[in-house]
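Below is the record:
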Amino acid sequence: MVTLDRLVNVLGSYGVRLRFCPIPRSKELGSVVMHEVSGTRTVTGDVLMAIGARSVAEALQWAVAARAVVVLLRDEGATESTFAGMGEGVAVMVVDPSVSWSELAAVVYGLVLEGRETESGRGPTDLFALADSLAEMTGGAVTIEDPLSRVLAYSSMQENADAARVATIMDRQAPEELREFFRQRGVFEHLADSDEPVFVAPDEEHGLSGRMAVAVRSGRELMGSVWVSCPKPLRGTELASLADGARTVALHLLRSRASADLERQVESDMVLRLLDGRADAAAAASRLGLPLAPMRVIAVQASLGHDRDAALLLAFERATTGFGWSRPGRSALAGATIYTLLPGEQAAVARKWVAGLRAALPDRVTVLAGISKPAVVTDLPAARQEADECLALHELGSSTVPPAYDESWDEILLQRLRTAAQSGRTPDRGPVAELRRHDREHDTEYAATLRAWLEALGDPTQAGHRLGVHENTVRYRLRKMAELTDLPLDDARKRLAMMIELAATDPD
């Protein structure tokens, strides 16, 4: 099941345009058909792909006969007047000539037939219905989990349910102490190496009534596991049902992954086009389901020790987990950085999003992030640069929380100056350079004194407080500094230049 709005948004990236829409875009679509007459009965469905129709009129005639509410047709000569005065009550989507029907059919069938939402986020399947079916066949409450013990689905049947199951479902993941218990019993090691179900005996301390677990695998890849609450090992048909069910779950997850990857690809391409300024901003934002109100760009990098790729891909998967447009942000992966467009003007909301992403990743993963100032869709290319600079600032360790540009613009500016200074683009002569040279050779603190005096706006008392010395010491140092170099303290422009040079070359 998918809404017309989502169908329009996704197919827009494939060269399909909504040209006439007499029905609400919230209309739900649950089936796809092509023009076909079986015996004396016309095959019916919500979306008709009018392959072979010779005109708009013929395609609409087919759609009405099929009781469709949406028709996809190819008509290179269609103009606005073509759709004027139409009264069939069918939404018309026109397919670009460069798009093949074969390619488009795969996308449409994937979206409409495989678009049911599950607790796992995206998915072409109803894993909850499958969990219910497995529970009936095995006689115990069922949970389906991913490789990190996060709950993908669970049965409504509560036979042999226990406190451990309740905690797992409530937290959407098996509690750490329960995972450690299974780890010590060798359960996870068994699931990683074997396709045979394993039994875990009851344990009162962990609120466990007993479990039968089996790996969900595609080839050699462990995709998850199925857990059945049972006080003793399953036998006979119940055990066979569990093993067969695990293979069915694997097929569901593979199809879900394919559907998710398709949606990620469409979303990522559109987000990057917005960030690069290559897209019609308003149209692209509409297709992504983003408001035209201000939003923030979040730049994220993730690593696990020296391994960046695995952590980054896992972070991108978590950032884009969620069915359709249910997620608050839209994300793209570019190089070693994840970019997310997050509606809202408050930096706290963006930091909360980053914290949620971090919490969804393994404990050892390091996450760095930078946040732009609020920007409308036409300003997103500039906001991307702001997010990148804040990310670099976070990487330097100057802040424990992700910096936001509107709060840290001064640090960004100073960092730019430091970068320029490190490339050798600062004067090696002049007051500041000569005072620094004297400090190195004679172990004096003249450069620090000059900076303190400038920051105190020429007040020797305040400068002394900053340095931890008496104000007379400041006056004495200033006299000695004036003997060493031309110190133009009465020239406002030169004072500003000296402050900039000091800020650019001081490590803090």
User: Anything to note?
Assistant: The two ends are 56 Å apart (CA to CA).
